[in-house]
Amino acid sequence: MGYFINIFTFLNMLFLISMIFLERKKPEVIVSWAILFVFLPVVGFILYVLFGGGLSIKNRRMLREKHFYDDKYQSFYYEVKQGGQIIKDKNVSSLIHFNIINSRSVPTFGNKVKIFSDGKEKFKWLMRDIKKAKQSINLEYYIFQDDFVGKELMELLCEKAKSGVKVKLIYDSVGCLGTPRRFFRKLKTAGGEVKEFFPPLFGIRLINLKMNYRDHRKVAVIDGKIGYTGGVNIRKDHLGYHKKLVPWRDTHIRVEGQAVYALQNTFFNFWQFCNKQDIETKEYVKEGYFPKFSDKGDTIAQIVTSGPVDEEKNNIKEAMIKMINGAQKSIVLQTPYFSPDEVFMNALKQAIKSGVKVTLMLPKIPDKKIVYLASLSFAKEIVEMGGDFFLYKGFMHSKVLIADNKSMCIGTCNADYRSFSLNFEITAILYDSKLIREHLKEIEKDLKNSQRIDLIYYKNRPLYTKFGQVVFRLFAPLF
Q1: Annotated catalytic, 278?
Q2: Catalytic residue status for 244
Q3: Catalytic residue chosen out of the listed positions 349, 399, 406, 439
Q4: Which of 91, 139, 142, 442 is geometrically suited to a Cys-Cys bond with 175, CB 3.0 to 4.6 A?
């Protein structure tokens, strides 16, 4: 037995060397793996083989090449852009400029945005828009479940594909682990196109060496004119039908305007990657995926994406930190999971020290107990610093950040290590004070249905949960 332990220990040491010198993972990640290797060498080895390995050089290169597509699409944006608004607020203009430089996110103007705080309403609007589709439907979802919600949408997609509408679907291999492939074959048979993001080896779903890197995005674009993104997947749980995780609180947006170009851009970046081919932007324009249209509203929007292509850089996290650092009065953060890195946490702490009112909201009913205990540990630091921490009496799946009622981030990105470093994510940063004030009314309702947490709450927690908070925090970078 000792012989085998020594072998696993040796292999684990090689993994650590690879993490340090080849993959250049962050120190906190290396420390977490090292602790696991020391105390549970066999378990640590298995988990690292399944979840810990980095993306191959080939995959990183292919994903980086999407920036060439970004350049092409952005030149198209500028061609169709009819002039933007003058932005007087320095913090807002600074944030917009930062996203242009940091993530090549072009500001889009004249957008009309509708915010959904309920999955059922979002699904109803999505189905209505898809029914009216005349040319194209592009969907990219982390979870597309074979339940009554997924079946209803799939039947409609097949119907539209048979009628001649171009239907394209990207689904994540891990997110759809419980969905049989025959479910997606229905769409192929009907004339649609389907791609699985990071498919497993030999088609065997449990043998997937890239399962740690997931397409967590939720994007829908109909006829190139209407776009959706946010936290709601295609699954009955996300529409509030979970027996235990109720009420389910989520946030999603529907967009009309130039921001739809950016959502369409995001979709085709991954569509190109999944197809391993390069098609000129002008071909997509000819096919009607980027139609010209006039202004629909007054909202300025930037679509920011991120992914594990560069360990040292995360566009969404850095945009959120920029929002936090620029806030002068208030910050509101809703997230289901809260295990940020030191940089993100320090930004929140500095905001509190500067007199900014920081409000953090997490779910009171957890879906992942281990992650939840780690989240409580991190949230305790916010309370200790003088921030406001609330537990929503239900499941909070919303991913929202609001700074000074001037900028608002709504998307798929949680405030945790997985979203910041491992997943492919997308978020919409909206600049519209009127829209933000309206959504803050929904957040006020959330606060009324929440429990305010103070240090006494932590003091009275059972001993085993206190122990769990400390231990599971150590492994937060691995969740």
Answers
A1: no
A2: no
A3: 399
A4: 142
